[in-house]
Amino acid sequence: MKRFKSIYIIPVATILCFSTACKKDFLDRFPQTQITPEVFFNTEEDLALYMNGMLSLPNRNTYLNDQSTDNAATTAAVEIKSMMTGSPSSQTITGGWSWSRLRDINYFLENYQKAAVSDDIKNHYVGLARYYRAIFYSNMVNRYSDVPWYDKTLNPTDEALKDPAAPRTEVMKKVMEDLDFAVKHVRENVPTGTPGKWAVYFMQAKIALHEGTYRKYHDELNLKNTANEFLQVAVTASEEIMKSGKYVIFSSGKPDQDYATLFESLDLTNNKEVILVNAFDQGKNVTQNVNGVVFGDYEQSPSRDLVQTYLMKDGKRFTDLPNYSKFGFVEEFKNRDPRLNQTYIYPEWKREPGSTTYVQRLNKNFTGYHQRKGYVNSTDQNVYNSIDFPVHRYAEVLLMFAEAKAELGTLTQVDLNSSINLLRKRVDLPDLMLAEANGNPDPKLKMDFPKVTGTNAGVILEIRRERRVELAFENSRLNDLMRWNAGKLLEKIPEGMYFPSVGNYDLTGDGIPDIKLIPEGQTIPSDREKNSLGVALVYYTIGKFDSTAGVYLSNGTAGGSMVTDVRKRTFIEPMYYYRPIPETQMILNPNLKQPFGWK
């Protein structure tokens, strides 16, 4: 059984069952006290117990959350896809308007002072509470823009329950105040797996970068002139982490392994790249179904557009190669950024158990690609359920620093060398050069992000490429597209592997066919053709989407890319950058207003 320093955690809801009547919907009900706050909030142990109950770290299932983006195809009914293909309204989109976590935070902030401990101890836990409140409100603003600001627990008769939403500017000002307090008072030395000083700085940078770029690229807010103050906070917070000397990009000198190690490790608690870790234990975390899902058996598969984003090993753009869009699976994995092979299952990969090379399955409605990131190549449940998850990585700090400076127009080659180029060095890619990037912007990225303009456009696009590649399947892409005002990219239906026609194809890279594509309607013979190794080929029928074929191709029996859907997707701007307040809440509080076109 793996090790890690245990933290005694009781959910806040359980704690409040002792101090309240466990009522739901805190905005509408007043807690009926059974054990008074004076009885509970007495010692540091009490404060720690409460704050540990607030801990809710992302886990390995996070590797599945790019289903909402252009990084993956999925058959799941993810929210944004359902919106683009349906008729969404405040009656059909009812999730997200939940305030119970805020109630827990504010309950602590109203009662912590009763503890007989020093101010330094109190301020550490207050800093954690305000850190959690900042994250909560940042997420609410991302979803709704203007939202009510509550800094106390409420009685159902409180008039504040009928308050209109506070402006985004006011809420985000308070968010940054919370984070300012937190970075000054949260301790550096904390139990493993709990947020300390540097995790707080990380979130300060992340939230500030999100808000700064959101204001810069979203004209509907009319807040572009305030974007730079947030971008500067992102730079400063990132620099604090960089100057601390506590973290480095993990590298053992193995470009083809080191990146993947971060996502397949049984122990990341001492890894110098990981700022905050969710340390797993088979006895405590037994419901991770990541292996089955990310391997293409169910619900999602990686997109071809993401494959094409990775650079060549020599730093050149893959999309500059002649006829790149018609490369087959084996060819498109040759001489690429090593992170591609450490994120996707690649030709010549072998799956445990056994030593034979794995042959990609071409499942209907999927792309043919399989996701390696998050998958653990083991049949031992005690192994693949005990993989640590890197919640915050130093790599993202460097990405945030470079992006914020580029958006501010202050980025230098020295800045790139101390940030982006450290990520490239891990995988032995050539450095990103500022003058070269700005002098020759990527035409495809320019088309994807037309709102990026100015003298720094080329390097901003390359930083966005680097961010997409480095953080693929780490639940970053959707928020990035939203803050960059790039929701229109989600209208493009993800596609998969390319096959020019019926015929035999090699998927393992040894030059020997592994599969045979035949036209739909043709019967797969019981006596299947064998390759030169004496192995029977895997047969698939091909045809148009929704045909009787086993594999859908864009041009049917005439070939093309694998197709995952054909329903038209429409991303309405700016409306779909936000979500509607559920209709029931509008009835309870008629002073609320729907954001940007929602009814």
Describe this structure in words.
- It is built from 23 helices and 10 strands.
- With 599 residues, the protein is α/β, with parallel strands linked by helices.
- Among the domains are: 209 residues, Alpha Horseshoe (Serine Threonine Protein Phosphatase 5, Tetratricopeptide repeat); 58 residues, no CATH class.
- The strands form 4 sheets. The chain has a 4-stranded mixed beta sheet, with no helix packed on it. The chain has a two-stranded antiparallel ribbon with strand order 1-3. A two-stranded antiparallel ribbon has the order 2-4.
- Helix 8 packs across helix 22 and helix 16 packs antiparallel against helix 21.
- It is globular.
- The N terminus is likely disordered.
Mean residue pLDDT: 92
Q: Assign the CATH architecture of the domain at 12-58 and 97-258.
A: Alpha Horseshoe
The main sheet comes to: 4 strands, mixed
* Helix content class: 25-40%
Number of helices: 23
Describe how the helices and strands are arranged.
Elements: H1 12-19, H2 37-40, H3 44-54, E1 72-74, H4 79-85, H5 100-111, H6 119-144, H7 168-185, H8 197-217, H9 227-244, H10 258-261, E2 274-278, H11 290-297, E3 300-302, H12 304-309, H13 329-332, H14 338-341, H15 381-384, E4 389-393, H16 394-408, H17 413-417, H18 420-426, H19 434-439, H20 443-448, H21 457-470, H22 477-483, E5 495-499, E6 503-505, E7 515-519, E8 538-543, E9 551-552, E10 560-563, H23 583-588
Helix pairs in contact: 3-5, 3-6, 5-6, 6-7, 7-8, 8-9, 8-16, 8-22, 9-16, 16-21
